[in-house]
Amino acid sequence: MQYAVWLDGVILDVYTSEALYSIYKGDSVPVPLSIEVHHDWPEFYSKLKGRGDLFILSPYPKEVTENVIAKIGLDESYVYNENKTKPSKEPMEILFRKFSLDPLKLILIGSSPLDLLSVRFFDSRIKVACVKRKEDCSRYSPFLQTKNLNEMYNSLKRLNYIL
Length: 163
What we know:
This protein is an alpha/beta fold.
């Protein structure tokens, strides 16, 4: 399997949805940033690492993304904001072009409706798993929604999406 994880919201304890939606509508606002990692990320990451290809999606520009990834100790392939970010499909287009992924083998892990929309605008065959942080993703029909990453890991394993 292949897993793509959004840096903001899933890994980092930061809420970016309002700012990103404003940017999508044409406003010029800063995207909130934090290097504080959610408490359940380290264990989830250690369990998932090595069980498939793991990719990080970032709403931040290249330099910011590289600095954050280095500071929090991630050593994974990543996609940064080159022009447009979620809910645009551009991050997914870049991810698939850069790494030649198969949409039927990818699970996207997000934490907001914008994460789901970005995937849906690109290819509706991609499975989306949502960890409920600040927002409920259920109205966008994720493949899976859980309260935390430990629950997500157990559910994905039980469904044979983690071997």
